[in-house]
Amino acid sequence: MMGFTVRMSRCRIAMGTLAILLLASSCTTGERPVLAPGLDATTTPPDPETTEALVDDDGDRTAAMLDAGPVRALITPTGVVVPVLGEDENGYRIVTPCGLDGSIVWGTPIHSARVALDPGHGGEVETGAVGPNGLAEKDLNLDVVKRAARILEERGISVVLTRTSDYRVPLAVRAQIGNELDVEVMVSVHHNAPTANRSPIPGTEIFVQLENEESRRLGGLLYEEIVSALTPFDVSWSTAPDAGALAVINENGENSYGMVRRPLMPAVLAEFGYLSNPSEAELFATEAYLDAASLALADGVGRFLETEDSGSGFVDEPRRFSPGGGTGGANGCVDPALE
Length: 339
Ligand SMILES: [Zn+2]
Hints:
Helix content is 26%, strand content 18%. The chain contains eight helices and 15 strands. The radius of gyration is 21 Å and the shape is globular. The protein starts with 17 loop residues before the first helix and ends in a 19-residue tail after the last strand. The chain binds zinc ion. The site of zinc ion (ZN) has 5 residues, from loops.
């Protein structure tokens, strides 16, 4: 397949702001690519007032930029996070959200992050579940993730998001962002369907990596935080009989879900509750829920990183489930604008 290429003109300038760098893209000299300095998170766009270009007058990378180590991911000028495979003569070799090879000159480099948060689904086709109130899972997941990322960043824990707005990202690329950055922990955020049995407590499910103690601990901590944050809300909950922190395996005995199987670090997939359940969908549309759910996510991840707590809610027997015809692949994927 043809590579997808993003090319912008290169500039021989050292400007003070990312905004100016973008405006200056008509320059045509052949010096090194100019990148804005790294942010550890994608939660806030670069502030033009404080962003400084890490290049000298010749357009070369400064010592400060070289000291920061290799660039492992980029935030494109349109705010899309992409994995970086290496440098080329024009800038950086990247993987587009749809998984195609690309090349890009401008962007905000990401050298490292401790946490990857993955808002499930995205794009026109891949909406995920849709509540009876019209709330789309892709939007809900993104809202929870962005709020949690902000909380973690405020606590000094760096976060990268695998999706930053409403576009499609196949599972392979989501996992690759976390893998390239070698994050310590990755959480994929979802809201469930279809509705199961009625329950007095939330039917939160955290899918952990089979026989991985650290993933299991992460799952137990998130289960504990999410269920205790949601239980006070007075709604009619829905649950599966084996809800908890558990492994889900396919017929080959592997982790069934791509966002559990593909990451190379402790990772889990969290189903906070049932968007298909009318009373839960109504709750999920409120600020109170978004605040509680995102704080629970941040607290669970924070406890994983900073304590040796073990969590709770473990279900020892793996669930057997083989997802069929999933929507996490690249078929029909359309890349968002990257420049
Ligand atoms: Zn989902």
